[in-house]
Amino acid sequence: MSRTLFPTFALLIFAATLAGCRSPGLASQTSRTSDDLQVADRTPMPQDDRSDITLTSSEAEPAEAAPTADPTLSEVAWSGEALTLAMLEQWACENNPAIRQANAAVAKAMGFRDQVGRYPNPVAGYNASQLADRGTDQHTAFVEQDIVRGKKLERNRLVLEQEVQAQLWQVEMTRLRVITDVRVRFYETLAAQRRVALAESFEQVTARGVTVAQQRLDALEGNRPELLQTRIQQSEVQLLRQKAEISFAAAWKSLFNVAGIPCATTGALAGSLALPLDAHDWETEYCQLESISPEIRMACSRVAASQANLQRQHAQPIPNLSLMVAGGYDNGTGSEMINTQIGMPIPLYNKNQGNIAAAWGEYCRATQELARLKLALRGRLIDAGRNYDGAAAEVRRYQREILPTAEEALTLSEQAFRAGELEFLQVLIVRRTFFDANLALVDAQSQFAQASSLVDGLLLSGSLTEATDTTADDSLRGQTLSGQ
């Protein structure tokens, strides 16, 4: 090789190496995912009427965070029909920001998972020596590469893979929170709508009562206290109707707030408060809940991540190799030359003892957190079961005994009044008792429907609770490439 052309040739090699080492774009990076654990395949899901748990696999890209424009009620809601629970659940899953936030955390964790497994870039360069001594100058081009040992990069990806699994479970947990809150708010709003209808119906009854009392007074069959009592009852029912309308408007706005859709007007809901009063074996329910709860599965992923990190820290003392190969030309001898160099740090003073101890402590903490969550889940199920069984007993009692008895008493009292066997004021009392029994049944049905929604939603609520951000970063890669 010509002595005058070698420096130029070496520089060209160096430039070409730099051009070839440019990082791929973000799209090509995120398209590479590991072949490790699949969340959806870990636990068989029981087939029941609960909300289906459908996790996105860690091998797939996360769902898009948000549509470009939020739908408004004028676009998606009314063409004259009442709104159903299924429609509201769909809107909530599409528009609630907490779900988008959780999906963004998944994307973040997937990015870190991809980064921590990246192999270090080679170093290419050019070296010239003895340039001031004419005729003896030396020119070399070299390539240097760190060789990672101990499968540290693969172990990095295993640690971050578990973090991705945890974030995917959080997406499912957030989705269930949203669905549960939508159902609870739906039945609360439906009950308020039913109270308005009952109040309006009874208001008409009280208006007719005032008319009858006035007619009886004019015919000298009644008295003024009787008329005043009917007017008081009418005013009380009007007040109840006004309060029911206010409660309905507030419940309607709260429902759409959970769905993430602005709402300025009220409409009507289509649905029934009469749900099946199924009995539950709460111990069996807990065993099933423990196996499918996203909270527990997320905590299990955290335990697996801490265990993988403990194994990773044990591999850290295995030193990496630094390999360099250089080739060049010596003008002093007129010959070509090839140099090689290999080296590695010696783990004499630092064997990563501190990080191993910290990783063990984190593993112990994660296992105790899992145990704590199981106890907390059992406690919440006990409370939910108490509310469910209590509301179910109340609904049964009103449906089977109290309401039929009140209806029969109303029918008999009206017949007795027409036969002249009962005072008009007593009829008013029986009518109010029947009205109050209907309101109490609506309240009991609402409480039962909300308790049932919470149980079906795996005890998850709080749709606007902030999604926990991933704790992952790319520090494991920096540790991998550091021999000290």
CATH second-level architecture: Up-down Bundle
Tally the structural domains: 1
CATH C-level name: Mainly Alpha
| Global Rg | 37 Å
Distance between the termini: 41 Å
Shape: elongated
Query: Average pLDDT value?
Result: 83
**CATH-assigned fold name:** Outer membrane efflux proteins (OEP)
How many β strands by DSSP? Answer: 4
* Percent range for β-strand residues: 5-15%
The H/E string reads HHHHHEEHHHHEEHHH
Q: Classify the secondary structure makeup into a structural class.
A: alpha+beta
Show unreliable segments: 1-75
Biggest sheet statistics: 4 strands, antiparallel
In the CATH hierarchy, what is the superfamily? Outer membrane efflux proteins (OEP)
Give the strand order, joined by hyphens, for the main sheet: 1-2-3-4
The portion of residues assigned to helices is: 55-70%
Number of distinct helices: 12
Explain the overall architecture.
The protein has 484 residues and is an alpha+beta fold. The protein has one domain (62-480): Outer membrane efflux proteins (OEP). The protein is built from twelve helices and four strands, in the order αααααββααααββααα. The chain is elongated, with a radius of gyration of 37 Å. Mean pLDDT is 83; it is low at 1-75.
